[in-house]
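Obj: model holo form, ligand = coenzyme A.
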Amino acid sequence: MVITVPDTRANEGLRPIDMARDVPQIVELLKLVFGEALEFDEGQLLGDDVGAPISTLFYRLNPATSRLTNGFVWLAEGRIVGNVTLLSTKAWDRYLVANVAVHPTYRRRGIARAMMQAVTSHVRTRGGRAILLQVVKDNFSAIDLYDSLGYVRVGDMTTWYSAASRLRRLEPADNDPAIDVRPLPGNRWRDAYALDTACVPADLNWPEPLRADAYRQTLWQRFGDMMNSRALETWVATGAGERLTGLMSLSSQWGRSHWVVLRVHPDYAGLLERPLLAKAIRRLQQLPRRNVRIDHPDEDIATNTLLAEANFAAQRTLTHMRLDLSR
Ligand SMILES: CC(C)(COP(=O)(O)OP(=O)(O)OC[C@H]1O[C@@H](n2cnc3c(N)ncnc32)[C@H](O)[C@@H]1OP(=O)(O)O)[C@@H](O)C(=O)NCCC(=O)NCCS
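Output (holo structure tokens):
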């Protein structure tokens, strides 16, 4: 059932978020609906580490500093009982939806559906061509809602964590051929990008798709990284004709978890994951001891098994969904 939007009563029903007055009530609603999970989501959305304090929610809701463009709230009895946040991305036609929440007392009345439909119309009028969102994999009620609105599942990503000090070294399997894992040659950053996007669809990167120059390291970038206590190292395995077949990258920044990326070309699946991850662990044991994070496609069972062997723990799996408005 969809509630008809009353357009004459300002204190009931759907309306766009009004940043000047809605923030405290939205924060209250999100705390009520998401509780502890909010802290995790918050870090995700802002690209921060897990455990960002709830107060940083104000950062997210401050249009001057966040990527927030818009969103809708639902009012009942003069209070905000529903919220959908709409964020723009660096691509003008690509939007993100977050914080879909309805107060428990007001659920199953069509409020979330009405807010989501309002978001779609709004994005259409701006010429947007895609809306993306993430939902916890087993949140079936929300997934039902998104399915019914035309969102299509892009894939599932699992976030894994370990403390660097708890990681177990991976030994080569008995029948493993010796694999040479070398630093990515500076001039092959385009090949690294091509390999990454062949392994993981662009829309599984959140909140922005992988940048085409993600693996490029100019001298200027290295200098900037050094000034900001950041470092990126990329290691690769190659096949016939020096073709890149697998890569592992390790990003580190002061105060954040080390971030590992593992990509193996589908033609080499099962052959390169162990040596690449083993290399990552050896490197991590030489770096400052911090938490280590990997976001990896959930369907890659072989890598999941290896991550568990190395003492990573799966924190959660998010289903990424996409609404295509280009047709
Ligand atoms: C998910 C949520 C936003 C739905 O809000 P809502 O206003 O109750 O949803 P609606 O009444 O608009 O329902 C729309 C559709 O969603 C699905 N749905 C909603 N709640 C459901 C439930 N408990 N069980 C099964 N399907 C459900 C149904 O397909 C429903 O359509 P129908 O009523 O025609 O069957 C709300 O339950 C909520 O706030 N949950 C906690 C926060 C959350 O999980 N947010 C999503 C984060 S990605």
